[in-house]
């Protein structure tokens, strides 16, 4: 007999999309899944068969042009503040719902403090998941990059803020500190994790959790015999019209079919007239495009990296955050991509980098090895197995 499993997650595409095949698998196995998400993700979540539990996010919308990338030294503190603020916004919306319809298990994203606090408050067994490299006493993004984390002037330390918020919500701060999920799902392969050998048996490297996206339009190349380059900097810190103009100048009127996904924060008109071989869109069905692509210019988000490896597509990385920086470093170490010059690349340098990458047999061989490795991972069925094994 199926059980009630709740998912509470951050609203970004990079966090939601990897969970959809897991939810679909749990629904297929007969479980009732309640998934808390925002209106922009509701169609995608509902397509899995889950019940959408709607909430309004306090995070900037994907069309918000005022969002600015934090200074590198401030990034971690800014992210912590942002997700604590999101918990302040979402917990009052979600806590009553899950009190009235108590789940048998809480599955929450690492950045979703609301899910964690509900699990502690209601004494629910829980599984945590994340789609970015995990930290422990041996490794973290901050230590790897030599970043320090300091609170904003006039604000207490993050843990003090979290303790205060928990107490305000009637949750014992000591219980929150002591809380440990039964399992942690890392929605990527072990080879993407720095110091992977230091993570114990509670950490489950699932490999990529990828499935059909019926909620997206299909895509095929307009000119099947012409090579495709996909360019995307994700859905968050993607307002870089100058970079996109460089891409158009570099690859316009070239042998390439260029698919340029600029996000909702950039008006395609800002790039000027697009040559006939360049398609500019807010978003594209990335799995379909990668199936035909020869090169992927990417911000090095974990989801896109895994989709590219799975499709056998080499990468040029343009990371925008520390999290993406360590991903790009790992991509280079694994030999399946190269970084673009962090300074603004010239059109000539960008075009040369694209062309050089396609002719590198070493990169092709590395991609083949990692594709073989990926096939050894359980993906969404493995994640569903871990979740089921955590049910009381």
TrEMBL record:
Keyword Transferase among record annotations: yes
Listed GO MF terms: hexosyltransferase activity; UDP-glycosyltransferase activity
InterPro entries, per database record: Glycosyltransferase_28, UDP_glucos_trans, UDPGT_MGT-like
Entry annotated with the keyword Transferase: yes
Pfam short name (any one): UDPGT
Gene3D superfamilies from the UniProt entry: Glycogen Phosphorylase B
Signal peptide residue numbers: none
Keyword set, alphabetical order: Transferase
A biological-process GO annotation: antibiotic biosynthetic process
NCBIfam families reported in the protein's UniProt record: MGT (TIGR01426)
Alphabetized PANTHER family for the sequence: STEROL 3-BETA-GLUCOSYLTRANSFERASE, STEROL 3-BETA-GLUCOSYLTRANSFERASE UGT80A2
Family: Belongs to the UDP-glycosyltransferase family.
Name of this chain's protein: UDP glycosyltransferase
Organism: Catellatospora coxensis
